Amino acid sequence: MKSAQFDQAKIAYESGDYAQALRGFYGCLKEDSATFDPGDAGLVYHKLGNCLIKLRSYNEAAATYRKALEDPDYTEKAAVQANLGMALVGLGEYDQAVESFKAALEDPAYETPYRAQMGLGGALMKLGMIVDAGTAYRNAALDETNPNPVKALISLGVCFMALDRPKDAIEAYLAALDFKATGTTLYKTYANLGQAYVAMGRYQEALDAFEAATRDGSYTLSTAAQSDYDMARKMLSGDAGSFAMNVVGNGTREYPMSGLDTPAVDNLFAGYSPQGSGEEEAYSSPSFSYGGGNVPLASDTGFFTATDTDLIAMGKSQMRKERKMRHTGLKVFLVFIVLLVLLLGAAVFAYTQGMGYPSQETVIEDLFEAHAAGEDISPYWIDSDEDGARTINRIMDMVAPTDSITFDYVSREMTESNALVSARLPEGGSIRYDIQLARNMLGWKISGIEIVFASQQ
Asked: Which of 104-108, 366-370, 423-427 has the lowest mean pLDDT?
């Protein structure tokens, strides 16, 4: 893009002065838009969204990224979709964020899909979809364009821990250490590794990991990790005390894991930089809370023992397995749909044959029982006005109350029905009624009632 103001805004952005960069890019829209080449509008909106993300104005960032997507000539829409996903995560709109990340991954021209996979994993974790989150993190680790899969592997380990699979989490954390993690990431990996070892009851290895995390004094263990550290030391010293009850069976834990807590909004994008046009920026994935599910075991897939070439093949193989599972689920779904259609067809047939719920017989029986008990009989009458209620009460009051009736005949039409009913009187004898009914949604209500005298029979 040919614009001195745009170039100055880029320099401000790269120097960390995001407010100044924001003003510069807005200036481009106001002053330079008349000279924009095809795709320039999308580029400027893209840059504006990045500034707003940096300034934690997530709502404005999301709206701005959507403006970038409206430019039909802008070619980096996959990166915009990925950044839009992060803005939506910041707004807590995780379902929409998932859709944005998936849209980015569907673009075959997207050059860094691991970024969208990391964001997708984070959003899915927030939704409690641990299986899918683990798959996203695994894909990010396998992505050949990912220059440093450490954070993807750590996040995968977090998924395993959330699923009470510490053995597989250990493999993930060890794989992350193989990639030469540094600084806080290194110490955090050791702390998480220590907790996984505690969950497995491997206390000496846990102690070694915690000591590696805290050796130079620059890293402070979380409360949960410190509790695990203390537990490992006590178990090794023979003074388990109350800690002995915190691990049962194969390592089921009764207290929270370190590194799995949901951070405050202000820390949500710590270490994350949105993708720009032609920029190579550091990326990270925020920490997320977790739910339940099943991520494939490392021991089942050979994920952490394969070579780099094998890892890619393993990933494709696993995706084929997942597709097969989805196909099985599709078959079950189709069977359910067929049964539903059959049931619906049966219901429609019953409706056209005059069936209903409640049925004609049930409505009439309830009517006579209510009359015999001196209760209100208007709920059984199709008309809700006072004239209709008075009509049926006047007719019913002509005979003594009785709930002893027999059905002589019931016609079954789709919308109208007719019944001849004989009511036995308490003093002996009987009286016959001709009762008309009308369809009321799925059931029936009375629309008319007449006494049938002997001369009419």
From this structure: 423-427
